[in-house]
Amino acid sequence: MQRKQSGFTLVELMVTIAVAAILLTVGMPSLTSMYDGYRAESNIRSIQQAIQFARNHALSYGTRITICPLSSTSCGSNWIGGFSVFVDNGTLNTIDGTDQLLLEIAPFNSKDFIDYDQSTITIDSDGFISSNFNSGLLSYCPSSKSSPESMALQLSISGKVRFATGTITCS
Q1: What is the DSSP string of the chain?
Q2: Which residues face 39 on adjacent strands?
Q3: Which of 109, 116, 137, 149: CA 20 to 30 A from 164?
Q4: What is the mean pLDDT of residues 83-100?
């Protein structure tokens, strides 16, 4: 007695794989856009939390806090390479023997962009951003400088941080 075998034929399997490939081809661009959006939101929130942490520490301990992308022991300008938050008791914008490192943020995706025209954010003991503060928009752009998923933080001289609205680009 012969049993009937069940399963897929080669033709059915090839049709299924072809349909799956077409669906993936159509769906991948929207998944990439969604991934960029999640990455931008996650990273801009980590920057916001670092600034709020620095302000809270400055107010709680009555000390000056500097946030900057460290290059060796002094502040650089490559925000996408990550940044550090430290108590800045000694030479301004330089981490030296009198300073205490509080927080380090790891480098961001190398394909992304951060636009901020200052090399540091310095918060004084009253929680205010230092007197050389002249630009309050810190933009994060995933994958391209004009990505529709870009997000930004609006910094005020009082040290408060909020999400910016409108069209965000990185120059």
Answers
A1: -PPPP-S--HHHHHHHHHHHHHHHHHHHHHHHHHHHHHHHHHHHHHHHHHHHHHHHHHHHHT--EEEE-EETTEE-S-GGG-EEEEE--SSTTB--TT-EEEEEEPP--TT-EEE-S-S-EEE-TTSPBPTT----EEEEESSSTT-TT-EEEEE-TTS-EEE--S-----
A2: none
A3: 109
A4: 89
Q: From residue 78, how far is each of 31, 112, 117 by CA, in Å?
A: 28, 12, 11
- pLDDT per residue over 15-24, tens digit each? 999 999 988 8
Q: What is the pLDDT of residue 104?
A: 92
Q: Which of 40, 49, 52, 51 is nearest to 80 (CA)?
A: 40
Cα→Cα distances 16→9, 10, 12, 20, 26, Å = 11, 10, 6, 6, 16
Burial of 59 (0-12, 13-18, 19+ CB in 10 A): middle
